[in-house]
Amino acid sequence: MANPILDADAPAFARRYMNLADPRLGAQALFATDEFFAPKERMLEPQPAVFIPGKYDEHGKWMDGWETRRKRTTGYDYCIVKLARAGVIHGIDIDTSHFTGNFPPAASIEACYSASANPQEDGDWREIVPATTLKGNHHHYLEIADGRAYTHLRVNIYPDGGIARLRVYGQPKTDFSRVERGTLLDLAAIENGAYLVAANNQHFGPASQMLMPGRGVNMGDGWETRRRREPGNDWAIVALAAPGVIRAIEVDTAHFKGNFPDRCSLQAARVTGGTDDSLVTQAMFWPVLLDEQKLAMDNVHRFEKEIAALGPVTHVRFNIFPDGGVSRLRIFGELE
């Protein structure tokens, strides 16, 4: 069965960047004009929305998302969301899964950068998604071409209804100027600005989950490929948060027991020019950063002396042999 976390029709930004609206990283739904049928916090839940036939609560049918009552006056409903990190937004998914006769006919999104506890009143709001027609039970992937960093969103629904999930894909804005020279940083951490460029297979779990903070909570919280039935190996390419000299690598197979990779290796390079898509071919020929190393189940593997001296690099290709699951990948380095 295909992984329900990964929508087959999702654009590259949904697979590449972190969800800045993930409550596990600190995102919050701060305010909603109405949440009679379903609370605003449910719209940010990291797992895919579900539908439970026959489940009702004191307000009516239980729905997995944010849902307002039927508006009998003029105006519209909206929700203020604080992002987990200030960041540049590359794309948004307004997901109306399981909302059929109760989805909003249209929505728009505004954004602001604010340190205020109440940006609703004093934020410099800019429209990043103009009023857009919505469909029921549908992912609405909207690419954002705006290089500014934002901290808050205002999700407007016209006039009322329900949104199952809101995903805000982007890169955190990280200031490395204050990092002391020689400090080791996790350059593969998604919260530092690293992102997934590509992976050859993500059947059971997105490769971008390897870059998330903390240890994986279960086997679904990591990168897992299908069982390989042909020669070769699986791989994932990661753009590091900043150029750096790699000093230590951690490969964590937490919760992967009968399905961890037998071995792993890493290649790395300093990349200039081209596009992310052009790296897939190039990466096959990058120098070896870490030779093949044996892996064990449910274990943190740390490598230091095994790392080759390649100088500052910007990207790594993580190879697993032949297939399997890895919970987290940490690439510790010094900024150049």
UniProtKB/TrEMBL annotation:
Q: Which domain of life is it from?
A: Bacteria
Q: In which pathway does it act?
A: Nitrogen metabolism; (S)-allantoin degradation; (S)-ureidoglycolate from allantoate (aminidohydrolase route): step 1/1
E.C. designation(s): 3.5.3.4
Residues in Allantoicase domain copies: 26-172, 193-334
Task: List GO BP terms, alphabetically.
Answer: allantoin catabolic process; purine nucleobase metabolic process
Q: Which UniProt keywords apply?
A: Hydrolase, Purine metabolism
Molecular function (Gene Ontology), one example: allantoicase activity
UniProt-listed InterPro entries: Allantoicase, Allantoicase_dom, Galactose-bd-like_sf
* Protein name (database record): Probable allantoicase
Tell me which species this is from.
Caballeronia insecticola
